[in-house]
């Protein structure tokens, strides 16, 4: 148990659907991250939030929209995704940016 | 290209043997971290070594860092079947515009056979 919880664990959606991924941590961390992990590719950083403020958008398409309503919760809103967006989406948190990160177990996303 | 690159991509050993994985990177770093990922799970932080450190131990793990060669190695001694996982190095390179940022390599898949 890492202290970072992601829901749902699995999600299958059509290209026209709208869904949201949720991440929750009660570790008192101030930095939260979204990563995309595809087969045979390195972990890709998508977004970073520090003290609820977005400090990094790593050239992510606008069909991915993050939201951080408070320091414990992070969402990733999905809309009109493409088949190549199928991947494992991992959330992580750390006391502050640059320190060791605690990861959730991810949401396995499949786009039909 | 990626900051961290692991070598080998895959490693298969017998229980009780030692496993060594290497990581190379390209730019100056603040620290280098190693993570483990079991199949279907998230990454778990193993160990952090700062740029002014050369070697660090944690249980059966030994990490070395050579900043002149921009490389690091992770040694797992007396391996167990439960060590079977993917291992990633991640470099923390300071950036003026955005502060620290971790960059992960592609990982080494370690299989420990009973």
Count the E strands of chain A: 11
**N-to-C SSE string of chain B, H for helix and E for strand:** EEEEEEEEEEE
Structural class category of chain B: mainly beta
Query: How big a fraction of the residues of chain A is strand?
Result: over 45%
Largest sheet of chain B: 6 strands, mixed
Beta-strand percent range of chain B: over 45%
Tally of alpha and pi helices of chain A: 0
Rough shape of chain A?
globular
- Average pLDDT of chain A, to the nearest integer? 93
Characterization of the model:
The complex is a heterodimer of chains A (112) and B (114). Helices cover 0% and strands 57% of the residues of chain A. Chain A is built from no helices and eleven strands. Chain A starts with a strand and ends with a strand. The model of chain A has no long low-confidence stretch (mean pLDDT 93). Chain B is mainly β. Chain B has no helices and eleven strands. In chain B, the strands form two sheets. In chain B, strands 2, 4, 5, 9, 10 and 11 form a six-stranded mixed β-sheet that branches. A five-stranded antiparallel β-sheet of chain B has the order 1-3-8-7-6, with no helix packed on it. The model of chain B has no long low-confidence stretch (mean pLDDT 91). Classes of the chains: A mainly beta (112), B mainly beta (114). Chains A and B meet through strand 10 of A and strand 4, strand 5 and strand 10 of B.
């Amino acid at each position: 148990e890492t202290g970072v919880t992601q829901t749902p664990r699995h999600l299958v959606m059509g290209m026209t659907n709208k869904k949201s991924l949720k991440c929750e941590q009660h570790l008192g961390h101030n930095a939260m991250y979204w990563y995309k992990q595809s087969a045979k590719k390195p972990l890709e950083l998508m977004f970073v939030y520090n003290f609820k403020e977005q400090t990094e958008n790593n050239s992510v398409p606008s069909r991915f929209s993050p939201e951080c309503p408070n320091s414990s919760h992070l969402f990733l809103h999905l809309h009109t995704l493409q088949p190549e967006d199928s991947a494992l989406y991992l959330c992580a948190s750390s006391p502050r940016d640059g320190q060791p990160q605690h990861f959730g177990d991810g949401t396995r996303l499949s786009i039909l | 290209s990626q900051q961290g690159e692991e070598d080998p991509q895959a490693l298969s050993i017998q229980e009780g043997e030692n496993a060594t994985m290497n990581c190379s990177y390209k730019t100056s770093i603040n620290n280098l971290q190693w993570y483990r990922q079991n199949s279907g799970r998230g990454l778990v932080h193993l160990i952090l070594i700062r740029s002014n450190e050369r070697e660090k131990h944690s249980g059966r793990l030994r990490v070395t860092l050579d900043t002149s060669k921009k490389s690091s190695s992770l040694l797992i001694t007396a391996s167990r079947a439960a060590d079977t996982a993917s291992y990633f190095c991640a470099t923390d390179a300071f950036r003026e515009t955005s502060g620290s940022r971790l960059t992960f390599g592609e990982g080494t898949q370690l299989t420990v056979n009973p």
